[in-house]
Design a protein that fits this description.
14 strands, Metallo-beta-lactamase, Chain A, disordered N terminus, 9 helices
C-alpha cells in the first residue's frame, strides 16, 4: 500500500478544503527536485507534481502549482537551466496545477493545454463537493496553444507526446509521454494518495478514469518511469494496481446499484473502506454512483 506523504496530503487538502487557504504556510516550503534522467526532472512543492525537460531547445515545464510558489519553482528550475521556461504544458485546469501560469507566461513561457482546460480557465468554476471556488484566469495566464486529441513537440532530442485522456479526472486531462526517455507524466489521471478525485461536474467519470489508465498502459512498459499527479515516482505495476482498485470499486458499486440500493445504502455498504483515501470516502462513493447513474 502506498503511504501518503505529508507533502501529498497537505497539497491535496489545500485544494480540497478551501481555495482561501492557498498560499498560507508556504514560506518554509522547499521545492524538491528529483532527477529522472540526464535532462528530465520531477519537481514537488505543495500542489501537483511538476516535470521539466532541459536541453538545447530550452526548458519545458509540465504544470506549475500555486502562484505563491512560482519564485521558489523558478529558483529550482534555475539550477537546471539559467533561462526561463520556453513552454509550459498544463495537465488540466485545477489551480494546484495551473496557479502559476501568469507568472511563467510573464517570463515568456508559451502555455499549452487541452482545449477543454482552456475553456474551463476562461470562466469561474465551482467544485460543489468540496465547496471550492476557482476564479477565471487572467488572460495572460491562459494557454496560447490548445489541442483536441493529441499534440507532438519535438524538443531537446525528445518527442513529447501530449495526449488527451477523455472524461477522466476532468474533461481536459492531458498526459505527456517523453518517448525516447520512456518517462510519462500522468497528471491527475493517476495519483498515489489512494482514491482519486473525480471532478464529475467538470467532465470526470469513473469509466473515463479506468479507460484512461488502460490507455496509458498501452503506451508504457515495465521500464517506464511514471510521474503521477500527486505522490512519488511509480512504475507500471503501480499503475496496474491502481487500475485494479478502480475496477474493483466500480464492480462493487454496480452490483449494489443493480440490487436496487439507493445512494445512501451504497455508502452504508462501505464499498471502498479497504482502500486508502486522502479525503472522504463517502464523497468518492457518491461521485462513482452518480457517474454510473448518469
Amino acid at each position: 500500500m502506498q503511504r501518503i506523504s505529508f507533502t501529498v496530503l497537505t497539497g491535496l487538502l489545500s485544494f480540497v478544503i478551501s481555495s482561501s487557504t492557498i498560499g498560507q504556510n508556504m514560506d518554509s516550503l522547499k521545492i524538491k527536485t528529483t532527477p529522472i534522467s540526464a535532462n528530465i526532472f520531477m519537481l514537488e512543492g505543495q500542489g501537483g507534481n511538476m516535470a521539466a525537460i532541459n536541453g538545447k531547445d530550452g526548458l519545458v515545464l509540465i504544470d506549475d502549482e500555486y502562484a505563491p510558489l512560482s519564485e521558489k519553482i523558478k529558483t529550482a528550475l534555475h539550477a537546471i537551466n539559467s533561462k526561463p521556461a520556453r513552454f509550459l504544458i498544463n495537465t488540466h485546469f485545477h489551480i494546484d496545477h495551473t496557479g502559476g501560469n501568469k507568472n511563467f507566461a510573464g517570463d515568456g513561457a508559451i502555455i499549452v493545454a487541452q482545449e477543454n482546460s482552456r475553456r474551463r480557465m476562461t470562466i469561474d468554476q465551482f467544485i460543489t463537493a468540496f465547496k471550492i471556488a476557482q476564479k477565471a484566469s487572467d488572460p495572460d495566464a491562459l494557454p496560447k496553444i490548445t489541442f483536441t486529441d493529441s499534440l507532438r513537440l519535438y524538443l531537446n532530442n525528445e518527442t513529447l507526446q501530449v495526449i488527451h485522456i477523455k472524461n477522466a479526472h476532468t474533461d481536459g486531462d492531458a498526459i505527456i509521454f517523453f518517448k525516447e526517455s520512456n518517462v510519462l507524466h500522468a497528471g491527475d489521471v493517476f495519483v498515489r494518495y489512494g482514491l482519486p478525485l473525480i471532478d464529475q461536474e467538470h467532465g470526470g467519470s469513473i469509466d473515463g478514469m479506468i479507460n484512461g489508465v488502460k490507455q496509458i498502459l498501452l503506451l508504457i512498459n515495465e521500464h517506464t518511469v511514471i510521474i503521477p499527479g500527486h505522490g512519488g515516482l511509480a512504475k507500471m505495476k503501480d499503475l496496474q494496481d491502481y487500475l485494479q482498485m478502480l475496477e474493483t470499486i466500480r464492480s462493487r458499486i454496480v452490483k449494489l446499484m443493480n440490487g436496487g440500493k439507493t445512494l445512501k445504502e451504497v455508502i452504508a455498504a462501505k464499498p471502498v473502506d479497504d482502500f486508502p483515501a486522502a479525503f472522504l470516502r463517502e464523497v468518492f462513493v457518491e461521485t462513482v454512483y452518480n457517474s454510473l447513474k448518469k
